[in-house]
Amino acid sequence: MVTLWRATLSALIGVMFLAAAGTPPVFAVQPDEVLSDASLEKRARSLSAGLRCLVCQNQSIDDSDAPLAKDLRVLVRERLVAGDSDQQVIDYVVARYGDFVLLKPPMNTHTMLLWIAPLLALAGAVVVILRGMRAQPPTTIATAAPLSAREEEELDRLIKSSRGPDTSSR
Q1: Alpha carbon separation from 60 to 41, 70, 80 (Å, rounded)
Q2: Does residue 58 form part of some domain?
Q3: What is residue 150's predicted lDDT score, i.e. its pLDDT?
Q4: How far apart are CA 77 and CA 66, in angstroms?
Q5: Which whole-number Å values give the CA distances from 120 to 26, 99, 160, in the listed order?
Q6: Which of 7-16, 31-40, 102-111 has the lowest mean pLDDT?
Q7: What is the CATH number of the domain that holds 48?
Q8: Domain residue limits at 93
Q9: How far is CA 168 from the centre of its chain?
Q10: How far apart are the first and last CA of the chain?
């Protein structure tokens, strides 16, 4: 009975895993936004994946449900239908919203801090760690002073009392 239960549970988990693995990623694109031309839709999805949702900021407009993301997806599709190239669409969106709208902003004077900030943070962490290591005095093993005669007698008494009655005389 237990083996049947384990086999059923294993099969159920396997089916759930395969179903989850075979599920395509969920996009926020609504059916009314999808272009009838498959090649234009593919280009729109590709462009949308590289544009940042200005509301969510860590999602592409392709993944975001925000109203502004929807407006940007529609704008991208309108520009493609009008005959713009991919670069022209990107240039148009960047002209309106700045380099921040790109998930991978270009390296230029306006975005230099974005590119250098991780290196500065790493260098700062190394400096803090090195200063912390240097500020700590080296640890040494302290040597204890020898016990006095009274302390040795007390220690012997405690050791004998913890052992119980003396059995060495037998």
Answers
A1: 16, 11, 18
A2: yes
A3: 94
A4: 17
A5: 36, 21, 63
A6: 7-16
A7: 1.10.8.640
A8: 28-101
A9: 67
A10: 63
